[in-house]
Amino acid sequence: MSLSPFHLAFPVHDLIAAREFWGEVMGCEEGRSSDDWIDFDFYGHQIVAHQAPSIVAKGGHGSNPVDGHDVPVPHFGIVLGMEEWQELADRLTARGVEFEIEPHIRFQGQPGEQATMFFRDPSGNAIEMKAFADCSKLFAKG
């Protein structure tokens, strides 16, 4: 199965901070941009940081319990291979990124066992990066 790239636009309070975080910390190549938005290549998907400080100021964040952690809602991310996930976790740790949920393995011993970590960009957008030892288990039921 081949996946089509998704597109996600999200609000940021500051494009300079977004460019540093998404470009330098996350390693996403920058695409087109304007005075109000920046495209980034997020593992082959198009994400767009739109300067919208009034939306960021309103918040609108919550959480739901998942495997003993309060998972931020809303959030977005990508499923990586285990090695790439670990390299990213190490890079984020080295850069001093504060984790909302530290890198760990959840659902251990279950069909949906996965590596996961949660953190926020400078505008408070929650990001989950995850990996499966066996990607065929992505939608596996217990």
Spatial order of the strands forming the largest sheet: 1-4-3-2
Q: What is the level 1 CATH name of the largest domain? A: Alpha Beta
Q: What's the helix-strand series? A: EHEEEHEEEHEEE
State the separation between the terminal residues, measured CA to CA.
23 Å
Number of helices: 3
Helix/strand class = alpha+beta
Outline: globular
- The name CATH uses for the topology of the largest domain is 2,3-Dihydroxybiphenyl 1,2-Dioxygenase, domain 1
As a percent range, the share of strand residues is 35-45%
Mean pLDDT: 91
What is the count of distinct domains? 2
DSSP, total strands: 10
Largest sheet: 4 strands, mixed
Assign the CATH architecture of the largest domain.
Answer: Roll
Unreliable runs: none
Residues in helix, %: 10-25%
Radius of gyration: 15 Å
Give the CATH superfamily of the largest domain.
2,3-Dihydroxybiphenyl 1,2-Dioxygenase, domain 1
What does this structure look like?
The protein has 142 residues and is an alpha+beta fold. It folds into 2 domains: 52 residues, 2,3-Dihydroxybiphenyl 1,2-Dioxygenase, domain 1 (Roll); 76 residues, Roll (2,3-Dihydroxybiphenyl 1,2-Dioxygenase, domain 1), CATH 3.10.180.10. It is 21% helix and 43% strand. The protein is built from 3 helices and 10 strands, in the order βαβββαβββαβββ. Strands 1-4-3-2 form a 4-stranded mixed β-sheet. It has a 4-stranded mixed β-sheet with strand order 7-10-9-8. Strand 3 and strand 4 form a beta hairpin. The radius of gyration is 15 Å and the shape is globular. The two termini are 23 Å apart. The mean pLDDT is 91. This is VOC family protein.
